[in-house]
Amino acid sequence: MAIKSYIEAVTDALREEMERDESIFILGEDVGVRGGVFRATAGLIEKFGEERVIDSPLSESAIVGVSIGAAMVGMRPVAEMQFADFIFPAYNQIVSEAARIRYRTKSDWTVPMTIRAPYGGGIHGGLYHSQSVEALFHHVPGIKIVMPSTPYDVKGLLKAAIRDNDPVLFFEHKRCYRLIKGEVPDEDYTIEIGKGDVKREGTDVTVITYGLMVHYTLEAAEVLEKEGISTHVIDLRSIKPLDKELIIEGAKKTGKVLIVHEDGKFGGVGGEISAIIAEEALFDLDAPIQRLAGPDVPGMPYSPPQEKFYMLNPTKIADAIRKLAEF
Amino acid sequence: MSKHDYKELGLTEEQVLNMYYFMLLARKLDERFWLLNRAGKIPFVISCQGQEAAQVGATFALDKTIDYIAPYYRDLGCVLVFGQTPTDIMMSAFAKPGDPNSHGRQMPGHFGGRKYRILSGSSPVTTQFPHAVGAALAAKMRGEKSVAYTSTGEGSSNQGDFHEAANFAAVHKLPVIFYVENNGYAISVPLDKQLGNHNTADRAVGYGFPGHSIDGNDVLECYKYTKEAAERARNGEGPTLIEARTYRLVPHSSDDDDRAYRSREEVEAAKQKDPILTFAQYLRDKGVLTPEKEQEMNDSIAKAVNEATDEAEKAPFFDPEDALTHVYEER
Ligand SMILES: Cc1ncc(C[n+]2csc(CCOP(=O)(O)OP(=O)(O)O)c2C)c(N)n1
Ligand SMILES: [Mg+2]
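Predict the joint structure of the above. Result:
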């Protein structure tokens, strides 16, 4: 075991996978000589050469489209979107192509491709360097979406994503990159995509969340414990497929559910989770399902007080849990 | 009439007859689609008619044992050359099992098939361009000698993916051939409203590789230029852009009425330059297409089209619930 940062877990997973399988290569803006603007691919071009760590033109649709073509003929590309905010030029390639190629050929052609994209706010990024974009992909059958919160989960899930025979969107929270550290085993392991994880056992309120919000929720739970409120924290880790079993079990366990995500509320992942609970566990509930999410405005402002206002934090989450506990 | 001498291009009598065979087969299958559509038996047709020379000439210049093609919806001629059979094509027209493109899931003309080395295509135009570049990138990384060929219409050449793919391929000097079948219309929109520069091959200069605007009604010219492009690609010299100037002889699709936007005189004039008629005459003049050979070919194509139609018409559909399969890998 070693203590690693979230971003080190990304780099380690990439390096180990590339050592294991020659068909894996990296394609993205500034991923080579610079090692990525966040340095997630640091050291990889030195180790694997510019053939396998490709500094691509500034051209997101090509990064994804070329990766799709390479994946179809037997490669395993790991494409990087420099920021999740800039994934939209590639939206057509992801939604119309990557997500549908297996279906439209009955698995004659497949796209074993991973797209990594740093997302999320609280880093002074303004409207176009802070977004959570998962809801815009969540609706799309044919892709998987992973949003890990810890170094351990990052490494196991990124390896699983790269080995997966379907396209996987792998969203990494920028704020977690250097803030979050944790134990990561030295030996090779993977985590099944679509399986959530209970990050804290509790009995009064169940919080279902993912990404950076897992950490904020755990901080809130610490505070609330001192007040005598016990919080059950589910980290979804993957939002597509969703771990329905864990969600229903968590809802039944406490009868009070709070869904937390940084992304905007309307049409967000929380709506789907709450519908699942309403369909499968309504009579086990003791309170209406609550959602705590980002405000429904077009983006996160750059102005520091406004950014702070937009972002969720442990206090806002603690307040929402407390309210639910008292219901 | 072709201005090229097939022998000078290194082609044999048998090869040029074969080219003609595939052009005619594509045409006859296509004509059958329209009959079936008007009889209410198949819901949709998108045609190759008028563009067979551009398609067959180009794909004849490729090596179907190692190259990949990412064609667009009109490229019936291309996929026949790459091995799809009349039965495959009719199964696709009827959306029946046995459709190698999509197993009945996509509209006809959305070609594909791993065993034929045809990448799967979709409806949003030009999305196949970066895919071909990806296949070419993979070939280069693995040290393979294969070439990736991709085609689209002149209207579709205005998509961002055209530019992104061309630039990417140029930067990495990838073995890819970009092929534009310029038939003068994008549904109803003519060249004047579609392109500031009617010659899409001129764009190649901007990307840093060669571009050629050629006579798309001359199958030998299409062969010649694609052959050169393929050689360049195999020699590691990078991509080539080819624009084959041609004409769409029928409406955009079975749901279109082209009388709304082009004159009958214009269409009639284009029919005089029908690449199938002109190539047949060329081959007759050269003494290659004898009356006996022509009869034999017409008979065998008619038989193949009839048999394929019957087989596809009689075949059962997939079960409705089959629609739920192959969303993700099934283990
Ligand atoms: C992205 C996208 N926009 C619109 C369409 C609808 N559409 C299908 S074909 C077509 C015209 C294409 O014209 P062109 O590229 O010249 O090819 P042609 O049909 O003439 O061979 C249009 C507008 C589409 N399929 N995809
Ligand atoms: Mg056109």
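Residues 197-325 of chain A form a domain with the Rossmann fold fold (CATH 3.40.50.920).
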